[in-house]
Design a protein that fits this description.
386 residues; three-stranded antiparallel β-sheet; binds succinic acid; binds cobalt (II) ion
Length: 386
Amino acid sequence: MRYDANMKKSKKNNGDKTLLGGITPQQFLREYWQKKPLMIRGAIPGFTGVLSAEELAGLACEDDVQSRLVSQAKGNWRLEHGPFEEERFAKLHAKNWTLLVQSVNQHLPEAMALLQRFDFIPYARLDDLMVSYAPDGGGVGPHFDSYDVFLLQGQGKRLWRVSQQQDLTLVEGVELKILKNFHTEQEWLLEPGDMLYLPPHVAHWGVAVGDCMTYSIGFRAPSVQELAGQFLNFMQDRLDLAGVYADADLKLQTHPAKISKAMLKEVVKAIKRIQWEEADVAEFLGCYLTEPKLHVVFDKPRSMNIAKFRQQLIHDGIQLSLKSQMLFDEQHCFINGELVKMSPDNTVLMRQLADNRSLPAGGFEDIFLIEKLHEWYLAGYVQFPK
Ligand code: SIN
Ligand code: CO
């Protein structure tokens, strides 16, 4: 497709002022993001959610969906991991439990559309949309998260207690992260469409007031340890160091079992030959950030030859499948953990696909782009709009 100035361009993040309670995304980033909580009444007026409690329970029974059930009985917390059998839900008490389902955006287009309303934060920071359901009294207890989160209230009400306390000591011996000493500093009762933004490490405790569904738009913040470890894994496949250990000047040792200083020095010299450039980190970062989570399974379509694919592409346009993650930087484009070579002819469209998650119908001409899209179609990375 040729780039046409009238075509829907890549997104400009002017954001949506209502969502942030009347402030601009710039102001939000300056004053609140990673700094302090923000409670927004009527962030999405009339919002009652994108799925029912029954549909959420249905998702929690699927093999490729991550879900948890948190319950509390006689002061003891219990955590169970999905997938669940339908009967598990029938055995639950009327009160004091919560079902939490991760990455609902990978299964429902409406959930993905909701997540995209938060595109004033780069996709590289976005994690997923988690949805919880709890009957009266349900919640996951007082805790803190290591990432930023927008807690959007769907059906029903939830009482949120928040504290910026320094004491983040956890109760020992429980699988769940429960704060030992939680001191409420602020308290809000959220109703459908209200939203609470929390920066990392702010203690919070949400309790359902009647049947309640909460939508958590969560962001990712990998630890430095994780980044470094993953980068070393990535570099392992790229290393190509010539030579083998050699010691033509080997001296007679008193202790044959001793690793000599000379050997150590030689190995230090060899290891120091490992080097990396910013370009290696850039490639690693794009692959790492778009790598599908372990449980993700792409739904592959029936095979279609490239001529037929092109025809339908021109007619319908194309969109990323809900499970796909696509990002780009100055030089590269990445999809689902893979680096994609871009040419000047397809850069604009690749970037547009990554930003908007779709490309409109039109005259696709670049053969490289058509071949790539066809390959991605067969892999289940992209699909025709329904
Ligand atoms: C919930 O939705 O119940 C929990 C969300 C959170 O506290 O992070
Ligand atoms: Co939390």
